[in-house]
Batch of 3 targets.
Target 1
Amino acid sequence: MTLDTLILKSLRESETVSGSDLAEQAGVSRAAIWARIKALRLVGYEIDANPHQGYRLTAAPDGLHADDLLARLKPVKTIGREIRVFNKTASTNDIVEKIARDGAPEGVVVFAETQTRGRGRMGRRWVSPAKKGLWFSILLRPNLRTESATQITVSTATALARAISSVIDRKVEIKWPNDLLIDGKKIAGILTEMSAELDGIKYLVVGIGVDVNLSASELPPELLGIATSLRMVAGKKIDRPALAARMLEELDHDYSRIVAGQFRELAEEWENQCVTLGKNVSISIGDQRISGRAESLDVDGSLMVRTSHGRLERIIGGDVVVEK
Ligand code: BTN
């Protein structure tokens, strides 16, 4: 744990903390603590210093800081063990892809305040204005067959839906496999990219984009009417670092369930929130188009679609349109 993480964690856990307690916990001098308090103030943390009572955190900046995100997390098993925050990058998926190839362990999370070449599914661009959303990617190395990679997208969606509902107290719907909606409009998407070998998944890069504090004018014009932001829905600004920490905890929790082979339980939760099941859908997979009724979720996370000919098709990816 870095010194900043230890300081911020202590300040969040108690109303006031004395410099000598912090120094003792960290095994450093009080002067070293004071130096870090001054540095934290420079990046926007408002910390009162009272000679009798000690330090008190009164406000935190809206910007993401790795040490602060780590300080906010309860102990995690995998996701969020290591967090990196970039101010600007082309795509967080590319950064994680690179560190995956360099052999980084699973659970590393990379955030960027803005992306210049954020990408969505189907080669679409993903607009990522600075400090308006949560744009991040996670490295995972699950022991799964490649066909089961959809399990990870499904568990990511349930975790994000739970985290978002807890912050804005609204029902979040899931559109298979990767869209999160409120009132039928998209607020978040997941882009899972995989590196695989014959015997299974080598690693997955799970990219997550959440439209948090965007205003209508910051959404791409072509998305008006089909996308929204949490701020627009809630009618107030959302605390991004708090939401980010909440998401990481839920993601870690649901990933642990997948690793423990509990996909079925998770799938039930998913099914309750899913707007795709029971509906007529049409799915484009490259040049192919399949239409039918979305019946259920299979054990590997695929969508089972009954076509008009009565055949049950297993869908593992593609662009799904839910017909009204
Ligand atoms: C979708 O099409 O719905 C998926 C969007 C995924 C966007 C996120 S933002 C962070 C990560 N980096 C990217 O370039 N894309 C994903």
Target 2
Amino acid sequence: MSPMQIDVVPDEPTLAVRAADAICTAVLAKPDAVLGLPTGNTPIRAYREIARRIERGQADFRRAIVYAIDEFADATRTTPGTNSVFYREHLRFPVGALHIPNPAARDANEHIVAFADALRRSGGFDLCVLGIGRNGHIAFNEPGSAADAPACVVDLAPASREAHAATFGSLDAVPARGMTLGVDDILAARAILVLAHGARKATIVRAAIEDAPSAEVPASWLQTHAAVTWLLDEAAASQLAPR
Ligand code: GLP
């Protein structure tokens, strides 16, 4: 039986508030916390909520150290659709440091390995927040990723490239490769918060939580971690067995 905590809230706005609560609590407990923060549609509203709290003086992230958990390769820091651009657009509050892999790195593999080393040297994640891809990926650890998969360059799955076609402008414009922290870097986090909303995530959320852990669904490796919380809206939780 997995020790994971499953919190189900009615809708996406509530999920954003609860996610902001959890992230702000971690930073209140440890102002220089090392955070992994994901990109994607899922966390955008939570980031807006954190920014609002900071503006009102209810939170302070100025000592928090943020690491991106993945980035596209073979692009630039200003290519629309990259995570570099995402953080500029959506993480609109001051943090102590924001580390994002360089999509223009000449040797992407060497670069992401050094990036993961820097994360380890800074103490590793106090809290790693994750979204989940519809194929079960976490960060860019695509299906086939083992529990000890290290930071690496990956060939992006067709589903992952399709999910980003709109932000890059077209499917052809989406890079074929990504750089990702490994499943091992994520599982080394002291706490993990996974966010998912919407009916489109229901099938994969159920597989990740209820099926035996396997490389087929990388998010299922989270079952092997001692401090994971899933924060789901009712639609994303709709296929879970009653608990
Ligand atoms: C992206 C990112 C993941 C993210 C996931 C879900 O490709 N690499 O870190 O969590 O896909 O994205 P969304 O929140 O848009 O569904």
Target 3
Amino acid sequence: DYENACKLPTKLVAELTRAGTRGLTAWKQARAESRFEIFRPHLETILELNRRKAMCLNDGKGGEIYDALLDEFEPGARAAQLATLFAELRAGLLPVLDAVRGAAESPDAALWRGAFASADQDRLGRTVLKAMGYDFAAGRLDVSTHPFTPGFNPGDVRITTRYDEGDLKVGLYANMHEGGHALYEMGLPAERDGEPAGAAVSLGIHESQSRLWENQVGRSRPFLAWLQGKLAEVWPDSFGGIDARALYGAANVAAPSLIRIEADELTYNLHIILRMEIERALVAGTIEVDDLPALWREKVREYLDLEVPTDREGVLQDIHWSLGIFGYFPTYALGNLYAAQIFVGARRQLPDLDAQMAAGELGGLLGWLRANVHGPGSLYPADELCVRVTGAPLTTEPFLDHVRAKFGDVYGVAI
Ligand code: ZN
């Protein structure tokens, strides 16, 4: 970290900060009006500064300069390796998507919709977070426009969430997602607080913890069976008599969508793969900022089989590039892959995990994560941590097995 900081000239850091501030303002306006040309000159400046930053960090080492940007968020990751991993992932996802598209009937997300007061959703959120092991004596739950989790030290990790009074799943899964991030921060080694070794190891591992609770636990059949009881306590009319299988289906509806943050578990990674391809090519200089709106449409057509009606729902939807953040997107997909592989590891060592989840007893899982994933902090690089925890380097198979089994089950199709 020290060496990297020393490689960047003060003037460049100042320019990057200024460009990011201006870029954010321009992006907000561009997105509101769905006019890419407002953002374009800013993005050109931001990109050029980031290419200079990457060259400084690369420091004549050769290879791909995008790796130097990636390294800030996922230390040690290399674009060429990720591209191979993501190509496998995409190839594995296509037959699952095809099977889901061809299914005779699909689950219905309508169960989540209705009139649910924020105060009631907050009550449910606290129940779920307590069951996960979130320590309210060392944290808070509040509301913000975009959910996030600032961790100051393991004894002070706060969560913000957002509630949609017409759609219960928004707040429920925001709480579980942010709760997963918070449990990781709470489980970092307190005795190393303030040292590099006491910090989170990578954004991919951080995201693995949010996704593990949100998707591997929160959208599993046993957990949803427990949750149904809790839902019925708060809203007896809506959830008193429903079939647990219907709730499981409602939590696992898969349909390609234009917006990344609204994407389901099955198609989410496709949003990431296309973003990484684009930003990698931008940093390499093989495409121009001018090409982006058309390129975005082309890739969304190819990957998600959707037409992008406006840039607001296309290339302008994410905040990252406006702030000068390149190399961050891949960590979302890495998080999904790590989550699946780590969960397989947990399952191996906690044979009655399903029964525990069905009883709302999640302490065994949290204890295992504390000992194996959270407690080591940054003592091992992410790829080495993965081998220590799961016995193997990261692959796409655990995630693909997971989505084949789950969506095969939910949609009643053989994959
Ligand atoms: Zn997250």
